[in-house]
Every structure is written in C-alpha cells, then in structure tokens.
Specification:
This protein has 749 residues and is α/β, with parallel strands linked by helices. Helix content is 39%, strand content 21%. The strands form seven sheets. The chain has a seven-stranded parallel beta sheet with strand order 9-10-8-11-12-7-13, with helices on both faces.
Length: 749
C-alpha cells in the first residue's frame, strides 16, 4: 500500500534552510528512502542532487506547511549513498566554522565530482548490461549444445548399423568437446560480473625498520594513543618521522582498519608517494587537486570497497571514509591546511581530528616546528606529546651563518642578490659534487616595478597590489597580478609619464638567471607555482634533483618543506626579511617554522650541512634562535607569552568578519555599522570586537575589503558567543540587504 512520506534533504546551497523545508514522495513503507540516499529535487527552479538527512520528517513537514513541501523528482539510484559518518562530519564542520551544512556538502561533492560519478555510473551500467548479454548468450549456447547432445545420444542408442554408430559416435564426441568449451566460456563470463569486490579484513603488511630512537618514540605514541587523545610528535628535521607514520599505518592495516595521511601541499606528496607505494603497493590511493577528476572519482570508489591508505591534501578529509583506524597530519603547523575561500573555511588539521572522533580513530600530528596552538593543547592536556630529538642516519645539525646584507652592501660584498660569502660556499659545494637549495619567498622576475622618473609603482587596475614582472620563454615580458590573475603586456614604460621602469627586488626567475650567470657550468632548475603549472613538472624536477642530476634548485616555499634530498649540503635563504616582515602577529612564528623546515633539507645522511641566511636585520630573534643564541623552546614560550598578554590565539578563538563591496563609501558605512551591531549583540563581556580595518591588500578584483576581528575567550560562554555572533551577522545582512557580501572566517591564518 502506497503512502506519502516526508524527508529532509541537504542541498549544495549556502543556506541554513534544511530544517525549514521538506520533500515528499509516495511509495511502499517497506521501501522507504534511507538517510544518506541521493535524491533529485528542485530548489527554486534549479535541479539539484541532494542527500537525505532525515528519513521521517512528518513532524517538520507539519510545522512548515504544505506550501513549502514539494515532491522529489526521483531517487538517484545510480549514485552511491552517503554514509552517516560523512553527514556527521559535515555537521561538525558547519557548526565549528559557522557555515551551512550545504556549503560543506558542496565542498565534499562538488558538481564536477557528481557529474563524474554519474558518468561512471552510466559506464558501469553499460558494462553490466554487456556482461549480462554475454552471459545470456553463453547460457543459450550451452543449452543448445546440451539439446544437440541429448538428441545425438538418443540417435546413437537407436542406431543398428556399425557405420551409422561410428559416424554418430564421432559427432557425439565433437558435440561433447564443444559443450565443454562452452561451459568453460560461461564460467569465465559469469566470473567478471560487476558485483563489486569483497572487503578484506585482516592484511599481512609490514612497516619499515626503525632505529632505536624511533622505536622508543613509537612505543610512547602507542601508549599515549590509549587515552584516545591526539598525539603530537615533535621530531627535529631529519629524525625519521615518516618511518614512524608508516609503522603505525602498517599496524592499522594489519588490524583491518584504514589509514589517512595528510600533507599540506601537493609537492610533499610526490616523494612520500614513492616511499608508501614500496611498502603498500595494493592499498595506496593518492588524492589531491593535481590528480584528474576521473582519478579522484576512482579513489572514492576504491575506498568504498577495499582496504586503503589515502595520501592526500586537506580535501581528502571529505572522502567517503569507512572504518578509519589512523589519521596522520604531517607538518601539522603548515598554514596550507587552511582553506581561505570559499566556505567552508576549514583547517585540515582540525577537521581531521573531528573525523577521527567520528570513526574512533587514532590521530598523530607531526612537525619539527609545532604550531603554538598544538603546543598549547599539549600543555592543557588535550594532546599527548612525544619528542624525537635524534636525527636519522646519525646526521649532525647544520651550521647556521647569518649574513648581514646591509653591512655587505657597504663593503662591496654583494653581487646582485648574492653575498660574496654565499657565492664562495656555493662554489665549494659544486667543486665537491654537492647540491644546493636556494629559497626566495617571491616568484616572478621582479615582484615590483617603479618609474625611474615619477616614482609611481605599477599597480593592478582592479587590485591595490603591485604588478609583478614575469619573463616568458620567448624573451617577452608580462605584468601579472598575483591576486586576481590579470595579465598585461610589458612595455617597459610608465603609463603616467612615459619614463622607463626599474625592477625593485628579485623573484625566483631573476635568482635563477643570476645563479646561471655566476655558475654557467652548473645544472640549475627552478620550482615555484609558475613553473609547476605544467603537468608533472614538479614531480620531474624533484625526481631529477633527488637523483643528483641537478646541482642547484631555486624555489619558493615548495622546496622548503618535507622533501628528503641526500646530496644537499648547503641551503640558503635570500632576502629573509620578506619571510619575517608579514605585518601579522603570527609572522615570527611562521618565519621560524619555515626557516627551521628549510634548514632541515641539508645534511641528512651523516654529512654536516650549512644554512646561510641573508637578511638586513641580523639581530632578529628568529635568526638568533636558528643560530643557537636562543633555544627554540624558549622562543616559542616567549611567543606564547606575548599571545597571552594580548589575548590572541591560542588563548582565544579568533573569528574574522570580512565585508566586501564594489563601492568603497558604501563598504565603509556597512563595515562600521556591522562592527557597532556586533558590539551590542549580547556576546559576553570577554568578547573583543576590533575594527573595522583594511587588510594589507584591501582591494582584489575590484572588490574593496574591510575586516572586523572578533576575539572570543575560551570559556563556558564560547559556544554561545559564536552562535550570537553568527546570528548578529545574519540579522544585519538581511536588514541591510548585503547578503553574500559578508563572510565569517573562524581561526584565520
């Protein structure tokens, strides 16, 4: 008997509407649509594929009234259901990052992925249909031959003459042979039906061999994980944290649990992928934006059916995970784990911890330079902590040499971007057949251009940011905005007075040019986001450098983190001032993390390396920490004390309210009105509202930007204050008709 049933559906739209609208369908109660099923519905006039979040929404439907209830267009049976664990994660992320569940759903199942799923579903259906057709054809052939054999046997029984019996016997034997072959063929085509692969349980996998120090650290981690808290592994660069990750992964897979390993950037996955594949060739799945849409869809299919170890960037947390036993977050401090736009503006590290809580999985965070947030959580007892202070292969800490570029310029000690001291070190390394890594935290040929006559800095017409000069392979130049991506041809003339333009500063392209001129016989390569746009280029450069085919590698942050090059004995950072002068309260912490990570790229196989820092402020506390004048623990403790004094994270929860508008005057009024509204919103007295103020780049793609910084104390009022803040922003947006121009960024980086 058919009856009308009501369901609630999550749709990929940025609206908190899910409890307010319901859909209906008619059907047998025994065939009710379950939670997690994919359904096709219309919202407004646009069709969507949604996910059922409540299978029995009769009570909600009665409250909203019949005018808001629409029938579903049908069930998307060709698409895999979404697990309840996935929906639980979406709700956690939406609640923490103050966005809608629909926005999280859209991030987990973007339209391209859904389209790819539908394409693969149609392909599977065609394949299954073809397989069934082949089976039916083979079955018909077997039946036909069996009938022929039966008739031939009857004729043979009735035969009298020897000649007839001999002929019929030959024909019978021929039919028997054909029938045997047909039955073999039927067995073969029946065996390839697309019925899915069985899920394995226990696997026999072995992790890598460990040193005594690594074994001790592994035992400590196992002991701390029994408390069901995340464990922070603070291991110095080159200490072999990866081997411990893989040992824990082998244990999880052997117990029938699955593994997720997160890395902050795609380049870090390239080298780690090869190491994991050697140990777990049948279980590794790689997931990041450089993989094709088809490959990412296949990964989702794989982990629904088979034991897996996924290596991926932050978006891998939204895969359809099941039976997770271990999540590893490598380089947990890295800001690349944070999604800045669009919503959900989540952090991969925090989301991984949410995911682990849903699956009752272990969490291991690893870093040579842990974030202040993680160190704070360790001191507060929320995380366990394990120290790994011995470097693998008994490698020695690198020496650090700080070169004061201001002093070097005064005594003619600089040649372009290079001090003569650094040139001497590079020359010595090349003579000994050793490799060199050079870090410049600016891509392009020149980050800024200025008129030599009127002093005008060449800026993007749509952004309050300078245009950068890029040299093309054909010898021409282009002016590129690194914020909106607009490209202009380079004429070399000032648009205001017509005078010539001069370069200010040097990017990676210019550094590459200078190093080739200084050492023409050396093999030089460059790795930055410009050069890495070519498919497989980054992997090729890293592989070539690992093999020793390249002498000098110039790059941005991409070469500073997590890579293991056995032949590198010298690393140098050029213009370190740009790393340490970001105008943000996190600048010193981030600078220390990046430079300490970069220092760890050299001297990793028993040879003592050298780290050269070229900087105009040689007395900077980060430099003093790196050269040993200050201990890292003391410096990080000082950073924490400063944060506590001013009430900044990790001692508070920071939420940025971002307001954008094409009209600056209207933006100023809106931002000021919103800030005033937040101050009287009813948040607790410990909440601080700072601003509005312009960010360092206050206009991007024609949109002017203002920020309001809200600091909420981590006390019993935190959750209430967050809800009050979101309600106040939503109410103001509706009242002032500026919905879509205001966004919330929880825990910005």
């Amino acid at each position: 008997m058919s009856e009308t049933r009501y369901i609630q559906v999550i749709l990929p739209v940025p609206l908190d509407w899910e409890p307010l609208y319901s859909y209906e369908y008619d059907g047998d109660p025994a065939e009710a649509i379950p939670v997690g099923a994919r359904v096709r519905v219309c919202f407004g006039s646009k069709p969507h594929v949604g996910v059922v979040s409540c299978a029995d929404a009769a009570e909600a439907a009665a409250q909203v009234g019949p005018s808001r209830i629409r029938p579903i267009d049908g069930r998307a049976d060709d698409l895999d259901d979404v697990s309840e664990e996935e929906i639980a994660l979406w709700r956690k992320v939406a609640s923490y990052y103050l966005c809608s569940v629909g926005e999280v759903f859209k991030a987990a199942y973007p339209s391209l992925k859904v389209s790819q799923e539908e394409t693969r579903a149609r392909a599977r259906a065609r394949k299954a249909e073809a397989e069934e057709k082949n089976v039916r054809k083979a079955e018909a052939k077997v039946a036909q031959l069996e009938q022929r054999l039966e008739k031939k046997e009857a004729a043979l029984t009735a035969a009298k003459k020897d000649t007839v019996i001999a002929r019929l016997s030959v024909e019978r034997d021929s039919i028997k042979d054909a029938l045997e072959q047909a039955r073999i063929g039927l067995k073969m085509v029946s065996g390839v039906r697309s019925d899915g692969d069985p899920v394995d349980t226990m696997l026999d996998v072995t992790g890598p061999s460990l040193s005594a120090a690594q074994t001790r650290a592994l035992e400590e981690i196992r002991s701390l994980l029994l408390s069901r808290k995340p464990v922070l592994m603070h291991g110095v660069t080159g200490s072999g944290k990866t081997e411990i990750y893989l040992s824990l992964a082998a244990e999880a897979l052997s117990q029938g649990r699955n593994v997720l390993i997160l890395v902050p950037e795609i380049t870090l996955s390239r080298q780690l992928e090869d190491r994991i594949r050697d140990l777990f060739p049948n279980h590794l799945q790689v997931f990041h934006s450089a993989e094709t849409a088809l490959s990412r869809c296949r990964t989702a299919d794989f982990i629904r059916k088979k034991p897996y170890l996924v290596l991926g960037t932050r978006s891998a947390v939204f895969l359809p995970h099941r039976n997770l036993g271990l999540i590893v977050v490598d380089e947990e401090h890295d800001p690349s784990y944070k999604q800045d736009s669009p919503a959900p503006r989540y952090n991969g590290r925090e989301t991984a911890i949410m995911l682990a809580s849903i699956h009752s999985a272990d969490v291991v965070l690893g870093s040579a330079t842990p974030s202040l947030e993680s160190l704070y959580n360790c001191s507060a007892g929320r995380f366990g902590k394990v120290n790994l202070s011995e470097r693998y292969f008994n490698a020695l800490d690198s020496d650090v040499e700080v070169v004061d570029t201001q002093a070097e310029w005064k005594k003619n000690g600089m040649v372009g971007s290079f001090s003569r001291k650094l040139i001497s070190h590079i020359s010595g390394c090349l003579d000994r057949g050793e490799q060199i890594l050079l870090l410049r935290e600016r891509r392009a040929y020149s980050p800024t251009l200025r008129c030599c006559s009127c002093g005008t800095v060449v800026q993007c017409s749509k952004c309050n940011a300078p245009l950068s000069l890029h040299h093309r392979s054909d010898g021409t130049g282009a002016l590129v905005c690194h914020h909106c991506g607009r490209v202009h041809e380079y004429t070399g003339k000032c648009s205001k007075c017509g005078a010539g333009l001069v370069s200010v500063g040097a990017g990676t392209q210019k550094i590459e040019e200078e190093i080739r001129n200084l050492f023409p016989s050396a093999q030089v390569a460059r790795l930055d986001s410009d050069s890495a746009q070519e498919k497989n280029f980054a992997a090729s450069v890293i592989r070539s450098f690992s093999k020793g085919e390249t002498d000098i590698l110039v790059g941005t942050q991409m070469v500073a983190k997590g890579l293991d090059f056995s032949g590198v004995t010298l690393v140098a950072v050029l213009s370190a001032d740009s790393v340490l002068s970001q105008g943000d309260y996190r600048a010193d912490e981030r600078g220390l993390q990046l430079l300490e990570q970069f220092r760890g790229r050299c001297g990793r196989r028993g040879t003592k390396g050298l780290f050269v820092i070229q900087i105009s402020n040689s007395e900077h506390p980060v430099c003093q920490t790196l050269d040993g004048s200050l201990k890292q623990e003391e410096t990080m403790s000082r950073f924490l004390s400063e944060r506590k004094m001013f009430g900044y994270p990790p001692y508070s929860r920071e939420i940025n309210v971002i307001v954008k508008d094409y009209i600056e005057e209207r933006l100023e009024r809106t931002a000021a009105g919103l800030a005033a509204s937040l101050r009287r919103s009813g948040m607790s007295s410990s909440a601080k509202v700072i601003g509005p103020f312009p960010p360092p780049v206050d206009r991007v793609s024609g949109l002017f930007i203002r920020q309001i910084r809200v600091l909420l104390a981590k006390d019993r009022n935190l959750l209430t204050d967050k809800k009050t803040l979101k309600d106040a922003v939503d109410s103001f947006s509706r009242k002032e008709k500026c919905v879509g121009r205001i966004s919330l960024d929880v825990d910005p980086v």
